[in-house]
Specification:
The structure is a single chain. By secondary structure, this protein is mainly alpha-helical. It has one domain: MetI-like fold (Orthogonal Bundle), CATH 1.10.3720.10. Helix content is about 80%, strand content about 0%. Helix 2 packs antiparallel against helix 3, helix 5 packs across helix 7 and helix 6 packs antiparallel against helix 7. The longest helix is centred in the middle third of the chain and has 31 residues. It is flat, with a radius of gyration of 26 Å. InterPro entries: AA_ABC_transptr_permease_3TM, ArtM/GltK/GlnP/TcyL/YhdX-like, MetI-like, MetI-like_sf. It is found in: Cell membrane. One of its GO terms (cellular component) is ATP-binding cassette (ABC) transporter complex.
């Protein structure tokens, strides 16, 4: 049973857990980087309708989106070494952190593949055809037409994925990874002040999540800046069109000016 609540423990636990924040952020960053590569490879067969690979990618996405991350952690941690033994690779000395990264990368790859596919499909097909009609290559069409618009669409969704990954890393301690949640378990067991431990941990996750939200909001506004500029520039044209179509005929017929 935990001891009587003491707010002082909250403030004393925060610095101790923050010393493990870099491990949590490393899991998030490395898994997302690998997940981007996996997600792109998984999304391509579905975007280009490659029969067999499309079915494989659908099964992969369905599995990792439809099963709990905790089960995936156990499957990778206990199952991957058995698969590696078949090719004479001994993973017994591997750091448990790499199994956590592999799990989150595979999980992120499934979601990122859907984000990429939906972002590309959100771009108007007519713009792609217009770019090709003026002689743009496939690479130029992708970098100048598809990518900027797709990024503006997917950034809000991707930000949710990043924050979700940050919170999901709290389960990595179940396979022995010593990140912030793992440290909180150690502190709670040593002091028997579990409530204070979890309050301190919650505050750290909350602050980091808010910082990430702010950064992604800035990125989203930067990507959408050209659209806002186009909107502002189009307003005078709309007003001028209104004057030409509505006011000018009235004035030419002897109407009074406004």
């Amino acid at each position: 049973m935990s001891r009587e609540f003491n707010i002082d423990y909250v403030f004393s636990f925060i610095p101790k857990m923050l010393s493990y924040l870099h491990i949590t952020l490393f899991i998030v960053a490395s898994s997302l980087l690998l997940g981007l590569i996996i997600g792109l490879l998984v999304a391509l067969p579905r975007m280009y309708n490659i029969p067999f690979l499309k079915r494989v990618s659908q099964v992969y996405v369905s599995f990792f989106r439809g099963t709990p991350i905790l089960i995936q952690l156990f499957l990778v941690y206990y199952g991957l070494p058995e698969l590696l033994k078949l090719v004479n690779i001994n993973s017994s000395r591997w750091d448990v952190l790499w199994f956590a990264v592999a799990t989150y990368a595979l999980n992120s790859g499934a979601f990122i593949s859907e984000i990429i596919r939906s972002g590309v499909e959100a771009v108007d097909r007519g713009q792609i055809e217009a770019a090709q009609s003026v002689g743009m290559s496939g690479y130029q069409t992708f970098t100048r037409i598809i990518l900027p618009q797709a990024l503006a669409v997917v950034v809000p969704v991707f930000s949710n994925l990043v924050i979700g990954n940050l919170k999901d890393t709290s389960l990595a301690f179940t396979i022995g990874a010593m990140e912030m949640t793992g440290k909180s378990q150690t502190l709670g067991a040593a002091t028997q002040h579990f409530v204070e431990t979890y309050i301190a941990l919650s505050l750290i996750y909350l602050v980091v999540s808010l910082i990430l939200q702010k950064l992604f909001k800035v990125l989203e506004n930067t990507l959408l800046k050209h659209e806002h500029r186009d909107t502002v520039q189009s307003e005078p044209k709309k007003r001028k069109s209104f004057v030409v179509r509505y006011l000018n005929p009235r004035l030419s017929k002897g109407g009074k000016s406004i």
